[in-house]
Amino acid sequence: MSTSKTSFKNFILPMIIIGALFFIFGFVTWLNGILIPYLKIACELTDFQALFVAFAFYIAYTVMALPSAWVLKKTGFKNGMMVGLWVMAIGTIIFIPAAMSRTYAVFLTGLFVMGTGLALLQTASNPYVTIIGPKESAARRISILGICNKFAGAMAPLILAYYILNDGDAFVESLKAMDATARLAALDSLAARVINPYIVMTVVLILMGIGVRLAPLPEIDTDKEENEVEESTTVKKSIFDFPHLILGVLALFFYVGAEVIAGDTIINYGLSLGIELNTAKAFTSYTMVTMVVGYLLGVALIPNVITQRFALKASAILGLVFAMGAIFTTGITSVIFVALFGLANALVWPAIWPLALSGLGSFISTGSALLIMAISGGAILPLIWGRMSDVFSTQQAYWIMVPCYLFILFYALRGYKIRSWKPGTKSVEAETVTSK
Fold this sequence. Notes:
The chain has helices spanning about 1-30, 30-40, 45-50, 50-100, 105-130, 140-165, 170-175, 180-190, 195-215, 220-225, 245-265, 265-270, 275-280, 285-300, 310-330, 330-345, 350-355, 365-375, 375-390, 400-415, 430-435.
């Protein structure tokens, strides 16, 4: 009986609490899908300019990942999560003066601060989930949390769209008939619609921070974990002596870029095809739903039926297939292929993390921070999509997805095994991570 209670306290309860945090991650992150078309209208932006929403949010991960690792060493994982939630609350409250002044730069500042808080939360929560259970089922645990994340991601744009773009098509049409003064007043009114939703989010984030502080979360003994170094004939002196980690960082960079493009551009893509805003505003949610399907498959199949590496390989191949479908079909069929990127993306993040962290020993905290920095792919690659869409077309811009999935496929086939940069050095199969 006591063993059961200990198991619940040490494993199940932390998973429930972290699951709630992942729900918050997903809700805040995937609001960007509706914020991009919303701010494009309210601040009168081009596609390229509007994609700075994603840039400001995700570049914070690169800038703040290493400082986050330092903060966690000072505060511990639990207090670090609390601080991260409160930093996010500062970011959401910045939306109020941004909306009142309808100043795009202030909106972007709020998004950067929110990304900073999430960088701290992600740096703590992802290795936390990897460490608290068996390594061979780490992708399964992260998949369970991914369901919480993407379920929130499916809800978020629909909820926010209800408050800020419920009359989107009629509003855009009415702007065409307005003189300059009326147009300015209408756009100011549109910008003000985000104030109440973001006040609510601020309150929720503050309360969540208090809840995490009071919750019975066990503190992870990272020193104990870091001493479990894989056997090697070479002493590693730098984080850059781990090729499988560095290549994993690059794979995550391309993955996050592909994920953000799939979720944050699909509404604009639908609009560019002539689909009404009242219909297109739900498209980000469709992408999230396909991701949830992918996560459910991961929970059901990993590690008993398929390995984490096989899931990664299959995901990359599906991504290439869906990219061709998005580029070479037309109309709503093409939009469906973009939504299906969610299915291809679902298991990439949970599969790469344990593969990349395998055998890092005392470098695990720095390795985790580098993987978090790879989230900058969500800042940079969508901007490339935005520029390509302005220069060519929104559909042709999806060619950017092809090199992303090709590199992920390389990592699944070869990259994760490389343990030395020296040519001819024997690769190591990460048995403890990929075993069924």
